[in-house]
Design a protein that fits this description.
single chain, alpha/beta, Rossmann fold, 6-stranded parallel beta sheet, 4-stranded parallel beta sheet
Length: 332
Amino acid sequence: MHIAPIACKVTKNFANLQKILPKSCIYRIFFVFLHQIMEQTVQQSCQFAERNARIGVFDSGFGGLTILHALRAALPQYDYLYLGDNARAPYGTRSFDCVYRYTLEAVRFLFTQGCNLVILACNTASAKALRTIQQQDLPLINEKMANAQMVNVLGVIRPTVEIVPSLTRTHHVGVLATPGTVASDSYRIELLKQDDRLIVNQQACPMWVPLIENGEHLSDGASYFVRKYVEQIMARDPLIDTLLLGCTHYPLIRSQITSVLREIGAPSCRVLAQGDIVARSLADYLRRHPEYENHLSLGASCQFLTTDDAERFASAAALFIRSAVTATHVEY
């Protein structure tokens, strides 16, 4: 649809309209009309956009695969590219600056691989790097891309905290996370933005990720550490009725966590994993942002990349997504 011919038709009738309406009203009508035409033009251009972009999913290791699994279950039509920076994992004990640099490198790499959306399926990266990348780096990246597709980076913390106020009845909320995520205080800050009445307790669980990644999360030793951290946070605040799993590894021990809660007399405490929450949030985001959705390719495929050994990655990944995968080693 071409705007110029339509605008000309409106201006030809300007003299006649001026006899009926004040000039200020005519200008207002004219610009509202032009705005509507421009919106229709953008929507039509989106409809005919070339679908050649993938959704990138990034994590420092394997935990983000639980997010990827949920995304593919909810939105199976899209093409996905998963990147695990396993060679430099874990991120949880690294400084803010280090996590930011590593995450930005990964994000830039995924953009070069044809992703127009990147999901930081890592709570540490979401806590320590997302805001800086969104505010400082994305504007420059999109400016350099000129007429190319716009790109964006989304995290996992915001979607998770947005649903909490509607679930908790006591307004007492607990967060189980890595030491790095707890130290960032991101969950408490974001939860209080949603509802300043919330009382937030956080518990660092440094042993859970190593146990899960080494396939020991069902062992007696793992049971000890699951009980230890759950009991610690519930002892500090027995009124907690909602526990957030603030690490993408933790869904693999969700059943053990709920078992401990039942045993210590808190069977009604709700345990929230992030996968389904993030998947619903992304589906809603794509509905509201056709400028991204209309570029996504619809091949229902998934490619796996790792900065570490590809065979080791493929072997461990099966634990998280319940199916065999083939991975490729990359350096960037």
